[in-house]
Design a protein that fits this description.
This protein is an alpha+beta fold. The protein is built from 14 helices and 19 strands. The strands form 7 sheets. Strands 2-1-8-7 form a 4-stranded antiparallel beta sheet, covered by helices on one side. It has a 3-stranded antiparallel beta sheet with strand order 12-3-13, with helices on one face.
Length: 433
């Protein structure tokens, strides 16, 4: 036997216990699973960039794997040691110490084949190793340096990836250019308002090919297909075309509807102190999705008609349908995917900004200042240092939807009352009738 185990597994404790590979598989309930693997296991180096790869993904020439590994399973921590020879070195406090060799196992030339009939101990050790990307007991935070080669799974993954690559490439080359223009804006590839078709498609293809080269294709596909990217593009397009613009107002950064819109000059939103203006506008628009879409569908459509952009009518209609079918607009902002939740930190900051709530040092509590029904109520106990964050986190919890909706309603009233005569300011957050 060439394996030693220390620690606890499934309630059993081990200390310098010599153990066979078959016993290890039995201990972890992996016996049947291991049987289904090939007689010769092949461990491949994990692909990653090297200093000499010029940005291309390559196999490192050599990977060294320590002959000791640790893992935690169901709260039990253990270590497994592989060796070929061990020589008694010393004894202290009733414990015997050994020199064990080898200290490391090397994968040369990208892969290491192991015949399980000849060295089952090493095969099982590497199968369970924490640096093995496919290990059934791997700690996710541990850097993976190698993985078990699975021919069938690899072929299936390659086929699936190539199919997705074909679909995305086909979309970039053939989809309506106006939809792609908005996606390119939403992916932050630049300002594509009034850009020609070839510029838009080329920019998306260039970013797609860069993602493939960097091994980030999954992230690109996720962002490309995410309705949030399209919606972000709509907001950026509106700003680029002057449908939404900015103006100074007592040292505050505010967005207003542009000169050619029906809402000309009306305040869209006031940017809270410390926020990046364009990012705040996008977040603000997401929290008021239905209002923005209703207004911008018409304004962007009219603007595209003025500029003679192709397929404008069909594109806006298709865009509205695509976004309506997404999670935007269909669910309460406080429910559903976390990606589309109202930002409670922004809501709390707005509540402070508009004098809806304040923190009392004497009482270590947040008090309501607005509303005939709620004025003077203590809302939440919190520490002075992090009271805004603590309150925002509490509001994020599903159980506190009603508290969040109540606060939104009060902020909306405060915003509209303070926006000035003749100025209809967009509500910070939608509230139910």
């Amino acid at each position: 036997m060439s394996l030693i185990i220390n620690g606890t597994v499934k309630g059993k404790s081990f200390e310098d216990k010599q153990i066979s590979a078959k016993e290890v598989l039995e201990l972890f309930g992996l016996k049947e699973r291991f049987k289904r693997l090939d007689k010769t296991l092949r461990f491949d180096v994990v692909e990653r960039k090297t200093k000499r790869s010029n940005g291309q993904i390559q196999h490192p020439e050599r990977v060294a794997i320590m002959c000791i590994t640790q893992a935690t399973v169901d709260g039990d921590s253990f270590e497994l040691i592989y060796y070929k020879t061990r020589v008694r070195k010393d004894s202290k406090g009733g414990k015997t110490y050994y020199d064990m060799n080898p200290r490391k196992v090397y994968i040369e030339g990208g892969s290491l084949p192991i015949n399980t009939d000849q060295d089952l101990d090493l095969a099982v050790f590497l199968y369970l190793h924490s640096q093995n990307e496919t290990s059934p007991v791997r700690i996710p935070s541990t850097r993976a340096n190698f993985k078990l080669h699975d021919g069938a799974a690899q072929a299936e993954n390659i086929f699936r990836e190539n199919s997705i690559i074909f679909q995305i490439t086909n979309s970039i080359l053939k989809d309506d250019v106006n939809a792609l223009r908005l996606k390119a804006q939403g992916l932050r590839l630049g300002n594509f308002a009034n850009k020609d078709e070839m510029t838009v498609r080329s920019a998306l293809l260039e970013r797609f090919n860069k993602a493939k080269a960097e091994g980030k294709i999954s992230k690109f596909i996720e962002d490309f297909n995410n309705p949030a990217s399209m919606f972000t593009g709509i907001i950026l397009e509106a700003v680029a075309r002057g449908i939404i613009t900015t103006k100074p107002d007592k040292g505050q950064y505010i967005y207003v509807w542009g000169a050619n819109t029906k809402e000309k000059g009306s305040v869209v939103c006031r940017v809270l102190k410390g926020e990046t203006p364009i990012e705040y506008l996008i977040k603000y628009a997401q929290n008021n999705y239905e209002y923005f879409m209703k207004t911008l569908e018409k304004e962007i459509l009219n603007d595209q008609k003025r500029h003679g952009l192709e397929s404008a009518d069909e594109e806006i209609e298709g865009l509205a349908q695509a976004l309506s079918a997404s999670s935007f607009g269909k669910t309460d902002p406080l429910e559903g995917s976390s990606a589309h939740k109202v930002d409670m930190k922004t809501l709390v900051e707005a509540a402070v900004h508009y004098g809806v709530i304040e923190y009392s040092r004497r009482d270590n509590a947040i008090f309501n200042l607005k509303g005939d029904e709620y004025a003077g109520d203590a809302l939440f106990q919190a520490t002075q240092k992090d009271w805004k964050t603590e309150y925002a986190n509490w509001l994020e919890e599903t159980a506190n939807n009603e508290a969040a909706k109540k606060l939104k309603s009060q902020v909306n009233l405060a915003v509209n009352r303070g926006s000035g005569a003749g100025k209809k300011e967009l509500n910070l957050m939608k509230t139910e009738e």
